[in-house]
Design brief:
Elements: H1 2-11, E1 17-21, E2 25-26, H2 66-69, H3 72-80, E3 83-86, E4 93-98, H4 101-110, E5 115-118, E6 123-128, E7 134-138, E8 141-144, E9 150-151, H5 165-172, H6 201-217, H7 222-237, H8 245-257, H9 262-276
Antiparallel strand pairs: 1-2, 1-3, 3-9, 4-6, 4-8, 5-6, 7-8
Length: 278
């Protein structure tokens, strides 16, 4: 019962947990939910357990509810489990899984320091903030956050820091998004010293943060919300060359965390640019 005790302690701190069996993999769906026939979590895009009492739907089973974690079906699973898993995105976290010494050396030079947890072969670097998960973003490096799970290997050491754009940008490399390029558009010179006001970090960062939050807070009509948010961002920042791939990565990541695919993100971005004549 030590694993269950650990899970209950972590759940009290808002970390969604699930048992992992031999091979560090989740328990399979029950017969009722086999192949998502229950309809509870189609394609596992919605976090949380379905209505059956079993430990179903992999990462989506992760929960903070003590009554579920300690229910008879889950207790039976804890007895067979070999370790505790958790859903980083559900806890508002991102795990950069560094699988070997080369990956660790790369991270020390490319990423800001944060809380570090030793693993069997490498380290987990844990950041505050959620994003889309991606495997093999570079040799020996995986990103585990939304729609993913990670092993709980202890509290680690160091101070947890905010999820940096450098990590978000890593996940975007696989998406091959449309790159922003200077547009052949005549824009009146701004007043004052002639510098674009959008290049003021606080102004641009605030706008991107508000756009991310708008997508994150959407509870319905996700496609429409993403498109309108992209349209709003491009209408303000699309003509002056202020947007970078890192800003675009943040918006795409927020959209994918809500279940949007890379294709939908690209389509929404393209349609917004077309509407604005960019």
């Amino acid at each position: 019962m030590n694993l269950l005790h650990t899970a209950l302690s972590l759940a009290a701190n808002g970390i969604p947990l699930l048992p992992l069996q031999a091979g560090k993999v989740p328990f399979g769906n029950c017969r009722t939910c086999s192949h998502n026939s229950c309809g509870g979590r189609p394609n596992m895009k919605t976090p949380g357990p379905c209505h059956c009492p079993g430990v179903c739907h992999a990462w989506a089973a992760a929960t903070t509810e003590p009554a579920i974690l300690a229910s008879p079906p889950w207790v039976a699973a804890w007895r067979r489990a070999v370790c505790v898993g958790y859903h980083p995105g559900g806890a508002g976290l991102t795990v950069v899984d560094l699988d070997n010494a080369d990956a660790i050396a790369w991270a020390h030079g490319a990423l800001p320091a944060t809380r570090t947890v030793p693993t069997t072969r490498g380290q987990h670097w844990i950041y505050r903030g959620a994003m889309a998960s991606r495997n093999a973003v570079r040799p020996g490096v995986d990103i585990k956050s939304t729609m993913s799970y990670a092993r709980y290997l202890g509290p680690g050491t160091g101070t947890m820091t905010a999820l940096p754009d450098a990590v978000r940008a890593l996940a975007m490399k696989e998406l091959s998004p449309i790159r922003l390029v200077p547009q052949a558009v005549t824009v009146p010179a701004p007043p004052g010293n002639g510098q674009c006001r959008h290049r003021t970090p606080a102004y641009l960062d605030r706008g991107i943060a508000m756009a991310e939050q708008r997508i994150t807070d959407a509870s319905s009509a996700i496609h429409t919300t993403v498109y309108r948010t992209f349209l709003a961002v491009l209408s303000v920042h699309g003509r002056c060359g202020c947007l970078t791939d890192a800003h675009m990565a943040r918006l795409f990541t927020a959209a994918q965390a809500k279940g949007e695919t890379a294709r939908h993100c690209n389509d929404a971005w393209t349609n917004a640019r077309t509407r604005l004549g960019l």
